[in-house]
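This part of the workshop introduces the protein records we will be handling. A record pairs a protein's sequence with a compact description of its fold. Backbone structure tokens are a discrete shorthand for how the chain folds in space. The question running through the whole workshop is how a given chain folds. The record below serves as our worked example for the rest of this section.
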Amino acid sequence: MLPWCLAFLFLWVGGAGAAGSSPEILFSSPSAYQGDVVLLKVRVGKGETPMISWLEREIPMVPLGKGEWYGFVGIDLNCEPGGYPLKISAMPSGLEKGVRIKVESKDYGERRLTLPREMVELDEATLKRVRKESAAINAVLETSSAEPFWKGAFHAPVDGELSGTFGRRSFINGEARSPHSGVDLKADQGVPVKAMNSGRVVLTADRFFSGLSVVVDHGGGIHSMYFHLEKILVKEKQQVAKGEIIGRVGSTGRSTGPHLHLGVRVNGARVDPLRLIGLSKELE
């Protein structure tokens, strides 16, 4: 239940939510920015189930009770600014409502580095490995259990300071590189890494860039990723509970020291993990 003191942060759209009326929609914000997360609550009539779609993807919803449902909309880091329609249907009545989410641009900053050529350019064998590993993780992130495993708030996997921000662009020797699609959290070597929420482990691997890595499918289109681990303590297809230890902080792969790289995907969108953690506190 959302605290009443936060009611001014949200915008209701729709009717009274009674049987036969249009669905009501509650957003955590009427607009969002690139890499953002929007908390969505929907109220439908008795016996109705909401079907939500945005950018040609279904947004899975979790029941709160008394006709209320909630879920998350992810705005990809590279989403073009503009207004995008979100469609809500109440089933089985078929009553519909359409609203628009305004996406604004955001500058996450940049860094420019000059490095020796041998540290930047990869040989053919390494390139082949990197491409294979990239294809494998992309395939995992494209599929998610339709049924949400997660419940309530998402928690930080380690208690550490932010050392690498989300979305920052890098230029190495003058060439643009992919923006940072997660956050880096400071932590000592061997510190336990905990699952952000309940889910199923869908990938454990030793990858060139991210080192020992774990990906958890929380269902409902939400994945979390844990990179540069010293040790992996779970296996693929294993169900994990919120707060369960899945590995230990390390510095494997391309890393300059012990830390945790944390990444989150919401319906395939690269989003700021700290936004998901902060917004989901309202569900406790």
